[in-house]
Amino acid sequence: MEITIKSEQDIKKMRIAGRLAAEVLEMIEPFVIPGVSTEELDRKCYEHIVNIQKAIPANVGYRGFEKTICSSINQVICHGIPDHNRILKEGDILNIDVTVIKDGWHGDTSKMYLVGKCKPHNERLVKVTQECLYKAIEVVKPGAYLGDIGHAIQKHAESNYYSVVEDYCGHGIGKIYHEDPQILHYGKPGRGLEIQEGMCFTIEPMINQGSKYCKTLRDEWTVETKDGRNSAQWEHTLAVRSNGVEVLTKRVNESI
Ligand code: MF3
Ligand code: CO
Ligand code: CO
């Protein structure tokens, strides 16, 4: 597959899809409380996308996935499946990852939620992982390299004694959910592909408290840390502009 360069008109549509995806994460926030099931959160997101946004939840039917959101709690790194038996409890850290298709274009984003009062070590993991994403976004502009993105993430994670998951990466995005290039969350400055105006891709670092190693559960979706320690992830969809970067999935209360 080749890398697609988006026109001004394409980016206009990506901006709409991105805003809708961000809005799902905003809408669900007040419902992320102890006692709620991840299935209930999934249903609310589905209904919001279909009935209010008149858009398509991209995860439904994607490679056999059946839900609208991925709900990944504590030691789950990514692709957690919403389930009526999985009830949130005080102190959990949760990632909700959602992708919306509007007018044929995709917006893909995820954020962490603290369920009630959380332990300081978990709050710190969540905060440092968000900083990893922000530091990576800061380096994106035409003429920079994909290795610069990975390096920014790896440096910040490792200087906080965390590890970077290597088995999953960010991706190009547009009319196709996952397209080239792959965006690695580790790397060396100046290496890899040169970033060009009109590229659209996600950055979605997964950062572990313990080792970087993963295992996939028997449901063939849920990815957990091998050592059982916690993991966090934040994701944005970006468009590379002549003067830098535009965060297409920016939430209203986010200052980036
Ligand atoms: N949204 C995820 C990503 O960031 C992919 C989820 S695929 C699913 O690329 F099938 F698990 F939903
Ligand atoms: Co995603
Ligand atoms: Co993604």
Task: List its salient traits.
256 residues; alpha+beta; 4-stranded antiparallel β-sheet; 27% helix; binds 2-amino-4-trifluoromethylsulfanyl-butyric acid; binds cobalt (II) ion
Structure commentary:
There is one protein chain. By secondary structure, the chain is an alpha+beta fold. 27% of the residues lie in helices and 26% in strands. The chain is built from 4 helices and 15 strands. Strands 1, 2, 4 and 5 form a 4-stranded antiparallel beta sheet that branches. Strands 3-12-11 form a 3-stranded antiparallel beta sheet, with no helix packed on it. Strands 6-10-13 form a 3-stranded antiparallel beta sheet, with helices on one face. α1 (8-28) packs across α2 (38-52) and α3 (120-139) packs antiparallel against α4. It is globular. The two termini are 31 Å apart. The relative contact order is 0.19. The model has no long low-confidence stretch (mean pLDDT 98). It binds 2-amino-4-trifluoromethylsulfanyl-butyric acid and cobalt (II) ion (2 copies). 2-amino-4-trifluoromethylsulfanyl-butyric acid (MF3) binds next to β4.
